[in-house]
Amino acid sequence: xxxxxxxxxxxxxxxxxxxxxxxxxxxxxxxxxxxxxxxxxxxxxxxxxxxxxxxxxxxxxxxxxxxxxxxxxxxxxxxxxxxxxxxxxxxxxxxxxxxxxxxxxxxxxxxxxxxxxxxxxxxxxxxxxxxxxxxxxxxxxxxxxxxxxxxxxxxxxxxxxxxxxxxxxxxxxxxxxxxxxxxxxxxxxxxxxxxxxxxxxxxxxxxxxxxxxxxxxxxxxxxxxxxxxxxxxxxxxxxxxxxxxxxxxxxxxxxxxxxxxxxxxxxxxxxxxxxxxxxxxxxxxxxxxxxxxxxxxx
Length: 298
What we know:
The chain is mainly α. It folds into 3 domains: 1-88, Potassium Channel Kv1.1, Chain A, CATH 3.30.710.10; 108-184, no CATH class; 200-275, no CATH class. 42% of the residues lie in helices and 5% in strands. It has 12 helices and 4 strands, in the order E-E-E-H-H-E-H-H-H-H-H-H-H-H-H-H. The protein has helices at 33-39, 41-48, 71-81, 94-106, 117-123, 125-128, 136-145, 148-161, 200-215, 231-239, 263-275, 283-296, and strands at 6-7, 14-18, 27-31, 63-66. The N and C termini lie far apart (103 Å). 19% of the residues are buried.
């Protein structure tokens, strides 16, 4: 970190130390605290509330450490906050846009970017229209900037073109800021499943369940009016279904898929449903029976 701070306001009252202390990209900035408070409600609460970053009562030096912030992205926000608009870049890369929008999202300052959004997105238009490029970062950028077309474009391409490795639990994309429910395959029944991984376990279970239901006369699922069995008969048939699983794929496999078998869970749910059947005998029936019993008692 350099010794002299970069001045955004020569009469600034606050020094920001940005980035990890020992990182070569870290820097310090002399800024106006009121400018930050005006552009960001988060900075307003941080600097003028009861937080540790508020101005010390008995000190002339007001220093705030922002070790998790990206210095390059914060520079752009500081230029905007201090009305140094001529220094705001006209173009940004996808990486630069992602870093900036994650920063402004955190500080609730994204509306301040409005005058530059169209030119920034235009500078990467050729990239996001390229069907051979998959960029999860663009998904977040479009989401944060409220741009439907690039958002829909990126979402569809991630769905249809992304390799499984892109969304594995330990891939780099898992650390990215993301909109909800887009880069998510949804819950998997298999206890050993990975994103977009093999579905052999679930396929075995589904096939077994379908076969057993078909043998019992319940697949395809019949309409309720077409079921002739009594509740007891239906219960007996469902409780006798045998669901197979793949067990251990190999003798030495550490994965035991027998724990993925839903038979125990389904049995418990069937019993719960049976136990929850309402008693057809109502309090009115019991009162009537008590009255009749008294009438007929000797």
